[in-house]
Amino acid sequence: MEKKHSGGERPPLSDFNEAQREAVCHREGPCMVLAGPGSGKTAVITGRLEWMIRHFRIRPEEILVITFTKYAVKEMKERFLARMGLKHCPVTFGTFHGIYYGMLRQIYHLAPDQILTEEEQKAMAEAAVRDVERENRKRPKDKDVLLMIGKVKNNGGFSGITDDPEDRQIYHAYEKRKKEAGRIDFDDMLLLCYQLFCRQPQILKKWQERYPYILIDEFQDSSKIQYEIIKLLAGKRANLFVVGDDDQAIYGFRGATPGIMKQFMEDFPQASLVRLSVNYRSSAFIVQASGKVIRKNKFRFSKDLEAVHDRGKPVHVQELKDMEQEAEYVAAAVKKKLEEGVPPEEISVIFRTVQDASMVMSAFMNRGIPFFMKEKAFHLFEHFIAEDMKAYFRIAMGERNRSDFLRVINRPNRYISRSALEKERTDFEDLKLFYCDKEWMLDRIDAFEEDMEAVSRMAPYAAFQFLLKKTGYQEYLKEYSQKMQIEEAELTEIVDELAQSMKKMDTMKEWIEFTQVYTDRIRQMEKEEKFTKGKTALLTMHGAKGLEYRCVYIIEAQEGSIPHRKAIVEEEIEEERRLFYVAMTRAKEELSICYVKEKNGKEVYPSRFVQELFTRPRQEAR
């Protein structure tokens, strides 16, 4: 519990352990605090702010505190004011983008509507892709264009980000469109701020005098350009107090520099280094297990965390047959916890990607377990393959809607023209009449009709397998993946999840109705407020960062999921291991890790990170 102190009173240090006190009382010059999970970093930052103001007599207006999300800014400010016992204090709290926007607004008189919204940015990026497609006369590879553009800007250039000429084309097409519209995006604010400080030293000096003391939370998530601006702001005095954990650096994919903390110590060799090594959150079992995993990473600061709590149980690892069995296992385990009196908000299920959660969401719905998804849910039954199957099933059930025929008539290609489907209600006789003088087309229509008659007598799972293998739909998916330049494995995962959802259904009508109920409930859930009492959290490993729960279930802990199949080089594997470490260290008392033996019809193996739990720990050099 943080204590409140009156204005003239010297704040006590009894709240803190020895390492925390060292950080709180640091006087001037650069300081880096290595803060492991649950080590009380927010208390240290707010305690240091109080110490600076009340003991060092530093004016609050001279202090700048930066963190990475608006939510974190709000929480940090509230914790600080509560500690000070004040309703207001003129310390500046903000995100990197928020602070830099404030600086640029004063110089360039930027209006809020000059900055692209996320939706506008997405539309502009899609337009840039179309520009390149027209120029090259081929579709660019399927990729997250905005992610690539953001990484280039946060890195200060293409070097080390991408050597693909197509990426450069898309980037320049996007920049051209943006310039013509007279707009900027969020990452432009970083570049503009950096250029401003480099070109106009008098403006830089003004801001250096305004904020001689800078504190940065979650420093490990900083990008190269953010760090360069901060170094300029800090100037020769270098009153930089940075807090972070290189073991929780998980945003390399969007431009953060994983080695930024080691870089800080190289740039500021005179800096104090404080290690917060006491974990106040997790049990000794969880601290020891997560430590075994993260110590396998080579590029990190060595650190040995110790737990203060001996409560809890040993980390449990569970092998399951497939995703369906895994989802049922987790749903049953969570239901049991709820019956034992564990509050729903003290339980979370954590996974690598939103797609991994589909089966668990379905199992939770079936058991009436209240839950929310922090990130936007993956709408499995709105995927084009699911929509195709619904159309096929409706035709097989005797429905004759033109839209259903249009959707699947050429998936796979049967060479049937849209002109043959002019009526709102279409049947096979109309198609035969249209092609009455083309015997080879009549054969195709007969084959399609026979396939639908065969499907009409099947349960959903069998019907799905028939459509995949007997009609050529599987080959169509293969051709589609090549044409759209996406991984075939991505579509295979969708096929497998759809197949799993059909296994227990008796009729196609039942499955279609289930998909509608499921989708409606997910949409309703997305409208509701998140992080409310009475709901279990479903989180990606990225989304779980900074949160904590009494009971945590990590699912899909097999090779290909975590580490993700796209992680190949050592640097990427180490980031995946950090992700797994973040997931493990969200747990306070109980941690269960699940993996499956079979996925997409193939045998899969437990994640190497799970296997590392059962190896002898490596001794670290200090």
UniProtKB/TrEMBL annotation:
Its EC number(s): 5.6.2.4
UniProt GO BP: recombinational repair
Domain UvrD-like helicase C-terminal: 284-546
Example of a GO MF term: hydrolase activity
Enzyme class: isomerase
Catalytic activity field: Couples ATP hydrolysis with the unwinding of duplex DNA by translocating in the 3'-5' direction; ATP + H2O = ADP + phosphate + H(+)
Pfam families in alphabetical order: UvrD-helicase (PF00580), UvrD_C (PF13361)
Keywords, in A-Z order: ATP-binding, DNA-binding, Helicase, Hydrolase, Isomerase, Nucleotide-binding
Domain UvrD-like helicase ATP-binding as annotated: residue spans: 14-283
Residues where ATP binds: A35, G36, P37, G38, S39, G40, K41, T42
UniProt cross-references to InterPro entries, sorted A to Z: DExx_box_DNA_helicase_dom_sf, DNA_helicase_UvrD-like_C, DNA_helicase_UvrD/REP, P-loop_NTPase, UvrD-like_ATP-bd
Family statement drawn from the similarity comment of this UniProt entry: Belongs to the helicase family. UvrD subfamily.
PANTHER family registered for this protein in UniProt: ATP-DEPENDENT DNA HELICASE SRS2, UVRD / RECB / PCRA DNA HELICASE FAMILY MEMBER
Descriptive protein name: DNA 3'-5' helicase
Source organism phylogeny: Bacteria, Bacillati, Bacillota, Clostridia, Lachnospirales
